[in-house]
């Protein structure tokens, strides 16, 4: 309430609120003498009695509403805000009847007044601005959309047109408010719109560079507007014109075509996935194209199909294509894709990483060696590590040969074979121990096979001594080791 009283007093040239009554009398005399409508804005400020009632508070709010309707400047709106502060204080201090708690339809004067104050405050906020900060925020949001969105070729052209149109409009709007040279559309390098004749890699690079230029152009406009010191009152028309231009920019970007706007087959066609086909065949064209890409070694296109065609059918065939390609299908991108799946214990992906001999997968796969609760996963991991030739896996795999471990008897032979594929001589002792002591003939035979793969004289001798073994599969490995030793022996 202090604001309303002080505003009244100052309007009469008196800085002392204690003389408010004298100021009020003078104002009354002035109104009688000069007639209605000749008082200043300050003199017209509403006042609130010390002992406010529901009726007087509503009248006070009515006058504030009128003052809000006539507010032309930010200072006027600041005055309205201050009067609303007084109104809130008056409502809080007023002795108003409380609603009957048992009657849901009972009147609530205090609540109704508080609602009116809240509505008037909303009106003040709606009447404020726009500000230069709003323009900057809109430009920064557009720049973020432009840089973060994956556009089609046509969409990138439309987005560029929207940016150039905005820069044009901004240059026209700022006039003397902003240095127009900073946002001159002729100085903005938006790149060439003709990307159709370029190859895929060049088109992608050009598109990326071009987008960077467009984002830089928007950043230049935002910086110029932020540094111009535009006043919401004095430069209202300039700010409004910039807001309109920013709205048009947003609409233009919304209308520009994104990859996500296209159907999957349209995306694939635009990226040349079907170009390998002379004509569409009766069975799914995606599969027909996939087989052709596999034959040609087009790893990127297989990855494109795997990412785009969200069906179990195509996922299975994409992974099978990589498995058949083996090392031929190994690229940084394919390993990254398969390793991401392997980290989720996807067995087909683990199997493919082995076929690719992807040493990048060793660290992840070694973590799964001891997962005794999942024998099928262990078998796949052991073989993959063997095919990779992962020396780091020798000790973890050797630990699985221990008969006292929790490793399944059906899994331990796979650990032995993996050690044979790796071929590291550190595995000779644990393999020889398994051959000598394990109760499972399958484990012993696998250990014998692994020692033969290592192939050193020591390894072959460790197997050859079991030629008279009662187990056929073990004695067979011993006989092969003996022949290898004979072949390696120098002739007389």
From TrEMBL:
Compositional bias annotation for Acidic residues: 51-63, 71-107, 178-187, 196-206
GO terms of molecular function: lyase activity; oxidoreductase activity
Chain segments carrying region Disordered: 1-112, 178-209
Low complexity: compositionally biased ranges: 38-47
Entry-linked InterPro entries: ARM-like, ARM-type_fold, PBS_lyase_HEAT
Keywords: Lyase
SUPFAM superfamilies: ARM repeat (SSF48371)
Protein name as catalogued: PBS lyase HEAT domain protein repeat-containing protein
Source organism of this protein record: Halorubrum saccharovorum DSM 1137
